[in-house]
Amino acid sequence: MPEAEVRVRPVRDERDLLAVREVHTLAFGRVEEARLVLRLHAAEAAPVSLLAACGDRAVGHGLFSPASVEGSGTRVVGLAPLGVLPAFQGRGVGSAIVRAGLGACREAGFVAVVVLGEPVFYARFGFERASERGLGNEYGADREFMALELVPGGLDGVRGTVRYRPEFGWM
Predict the structure, then answer these.
(1) What are the sequence ranges of the domains in the chain?
(2) Lower CB density within 10 Å: C or N end of the chain?
C-alpha cells in the first residue's frame, strides 16, 4: 500500500490537543497515552509535539519530551507516545512523524533521542540498542530500548540510566 499523503506539523492549540487525544485513545484502545500527552503539554514538557493530518483529519501524533541520563547534562529526548489511527497504520504516517520529529529535535538542540518500542520499526531510522552505548532505563527493557544520536558523538562517554519525566509514572 502506498504511503498516505500526510502533512506533519506542530501541535498548536487546544483543538489540536482534542484531536491528539482521540488519535491516541483509538490507536492504543485505552486512554493512558492520551492522558500522558495532555499531562506533558500542561507541564510544558513537550518541546516537539507533532500532529499528522490527511486533509482536515488528524490521523497521527508523536511527542518528544525531555529525558535525563543520570550523572549527565546531555540534552536527550524520549519519543513517546507515537500513535496512528488504526485505519492509517502501515501507510507511512508513523514514519513521517518520526522523520519530522528527529529533524525538529535536532533543530531544538537535542543531541540524542531514546525510545522504548519495536526494534524493527525504529532501526529503519538509525536507532540502535541503547544498552550497547551503556544506556539503561528505569523499566528494565533491553532489546526494545533504543537510542539515536542526532549529533555525531553526542553520546560519546555518556553512560547511565535514562529517566523519563515524572508524568510517565503510570507506566
Answers:
(1) 7-170
(2) N
